[in-house]
Design goal:
CATH superfamily of the largest domain in chain A: Zn peptidases
Strand content of chain A: 15-25%
Largest interface: A-B, 61 and 63 residues
Structural class of chain A: alpha/beta
Helix content of chain A: 25-40%
Largest sheet of chain A: 9 strands, mixed
Number of domains of chain A: 2
Oligomer: homodimer
Order of helices and strands of chain A: HHEEEHEHHHHEHEEEHEEEHEEHEHEH
CATH architecture of the largest domain in chain A: 3-Layer(aba) Sandwich
């Protein structure tokens, strides 16, 4: 009975440990920014694992690496399962890697038992999920929604992108030709660590993602006037730091009070001219806010921008805004969510529905094919840091839930 | 009668305009950071002016350039008059330059009339008044109070200092050997633009500086924790930006309310890791505060540091402090102030006593010889910017007040 089927925890751990050692930062974490030598080494290691497992290896024009198992009937679509092997600078060893290793293990388990499904299986490692160069690059290319303009002005820098592509043997035209036919995919499933504390606090095994939050970002410019910081009296100043500081505090208070399901971050300020003895003429502030609710974004956006205007006016400053992208929240597929819940029930794993506060490749794919995501608990919610940790038993639970979801969808 | 003597306004303007054109930024301002090519070109131009005027040229081990007029008796001390030709990045054309050109013009006037005084005269251009590399470098070297440690860890960077010294043909041992014998100087006089709005608002011709404010500076580190800005809930964060922002606002309010004669500036913040999607783990804040009152500094210092502690604690942050220098306020010499006031009266120029909120080379020299400073009005108080402007008639008034002060001191 395929409902008794389980993945091999030791085999998955051996594969996972190989990846944790590739680009290891020596502190439990990994440093594998997209197209770095360590990242390319991780992909070479994955390729080797695929070939040793007797699966078909495939790499597309966007550099997405995958293992194929032709277990469906001729002409059947493919169910994609995966995540990513790139990391943020000095990131954790679970983020992305767990999902790729679990997908590979699901294919090996299905292959070992010679199961015939109603779709083929493919375990994929997407390029640049973390956005070192271009956010969600590989999944957007596969879904045919990669904006060519992003290759010209990538947030990671044009030279960095093109040097990286050269190291990886990729070209721009290859990137844009990685799109697959829409009816070729039966769906996309991903297992990932939660990167938050909700599962741990609730003592629940599995999170079934309801939606991935939307992310809007701006560069906000508070513009005052440079003056001598000794000879200009306090009330004669138009000090850009005051607007930026007041906005940072007020934005947090606003979101906590009026938008409790949302988050806001001021990740950076850059001061011009930036000297001890000159009143700041300009502060460039990196603003990002997230909401799981598309209808709410306009209200949140309007409230934050009004706040920026108010604080600029309060200190006699000019305000300028540069929109850096509006990624709307996306819903996970109901049928996939039901299959995941049923799989957890059958495995006696407790589960809860929750939104993802982090971005994932499912955002690129949700308009292209049904998408579903499973979360396993993150100890202390730590992520994007060497402190990131998930108990191996939880990783195994997640991989078995993934396997059983696949089998339910195939039946 | 020497009390009828006046400087030649057109000759001074011609010399001033030559300097305004050297390192001109094309917008009325100049860009002559210490030891830049433009700065060295300005010094070469000054040397040429000195030689064309038939004055003796001198450069010391600290790179201070000067014109000497041996108009005193054998063995008489020297009255130093001057300012500096370096500028802040994209600074104004009056700051420093006016004082050097006025000093040169005073020497030319005395020379033209063949006056014999009770001291020799020297018009000096001090090295790095603005502190691009080391604040008040040239005047500290001349006064024998240059701290050798500052040459090892200059605030402008060690490599920048040493490359600049190489361009200027200077050495470290030369710097430290530029000290003059204490009894060699009769005093130091400087004419400068006010860099504030007080003279303009009062409609007064000349400011006679009572004291130069003291400046204390710190690098303040607010230390929190890097977290994923999407998946970490707002109240789980230890966001360093909050402490830095709250401190910036509270420091301003504290100084305006409790220390109305002081100023505070947060000229810069640096965020780590500084990404849109990561909660700031650390903010390094550049803090500077000034007071004209030495006795007040301890109270102001304690109040600001307590505020930083309070705001760090409020947001669950750690606080670290790095002291970057404590320059105490210094008093101008009474006899020189009386001579300046009498000179203004004789010239029918209105005058007022006021403290300088900006630092000046007189701070290095005040423990070494009597120091006096004259200010002329700055339009709209603008300084350290291309907007800096002083009416030429005010510059001429200042130069005549300088000349008449010299003659009064000599009689």
């Amino acid at each position: 009975m395929s409902s008794d089927l389980r993945i091999d925890p030791d085999r998955m751990l051996a594969a996972f440990d190989q990846l944790a050692a590739t680009g290891s930062a020596g502190d439990g974490g990994v440093h594998r920014p997209t197209f770095s030598e360590a990242h390319l080494a991780a992909r070479a290691r994955f390729r080797q694992q695929i070939q040793e497992a007797g699966l078909l290896f495939r790499v597309d024009g966007a550099g997405n690496h995958s293992a194929s198992l032709p277990c469906g009937t001729e002409g059947a679509p493919t169910l994609l399962i995966g995540s990513h092997l790139d990391s943020v600078p000095n990131g954790g060893r679970f983020d992305g890697t767990l999902g790729v290793m679990a997908a590979l293990e699901v294919l090996r388990t299905v292959k070992d038992h010679g199961l015939k499904l109603k779709f083929h299986l493919e375990a994929i490692d997407f390029t640049d999920e973390e956005g070192t160069l271009v956010g969600l690059l590989g999944s957007a290319a596969l879904a045919g929604c990669l904006d060519p303009a992003l290759l010209q002005s990538p947030r990671g820098g044009h030279e960095q992108l093109h040097q990286g592509m050269q190291r990886a043997g990729l070209t721009e035209s290859g990137m844009l030709s990685a799109a697959r036919p829409r009816d070729s995919l039966a769906g996309y499933l991903e297992l990932h660590i939660e990167q938050g504390k909700r599962l741990e606090r609730l003592g629940i095994d599995i999170g079934i993602v309801s939606a991935i939050v939307g992310i809007w970002s701006y560069r906000v410019y508070f513009i005052g006037r440079a003056d001598h910081a000794g000879s200009t009296s306090m009330d004669d100043r138009r000090d850009a730091s005051l607007g930026a500081s007041a906005f940072t505090l007020a934005a947090r208070a606003l979101v906590m009070q009026d938008f409790p399901n949302c988050v806001v971050n001021v990740g950076r300020m850059d001061f011009t001219p930036g000297a001890f003895n000159i009143v700041p003429a300009r502060v460039d502030l990196a603003l990002e806010f997230r909401s799981p609710d598309a209808a709410q974004f306009d209200r949140l956006n309007a409230a934050l921008l009004q706040l920026a205007q108010d604080q600029a006016r309060r200190f006699g400053l000019e305000l300028k805004l540069e929109s850096l992208g509006k990624h709307f929240p996306c819903q996970m597929d109901d049928r996939l969510r039901q299959a995941m819940a049923a799989a957890c029930d059958a495995l006696d794993l407790t589960h809860v529905s929750l939104p993802s506060g982090a971005g994932h490749d499912g955002q690129s794919l949700s308009g292209f094919c049904p998408v579903g995501m499973l979360f396993v608990p993150s100890v202390d919610g730590a992520s994007h840091s060497a402190r990131e940790f998930t108990a191996w038993s939880d990783c195994v639970n997640g991989a078995n839930a993934l396997l059983q979801t696949v089998l339910r969808l195939a039946s």
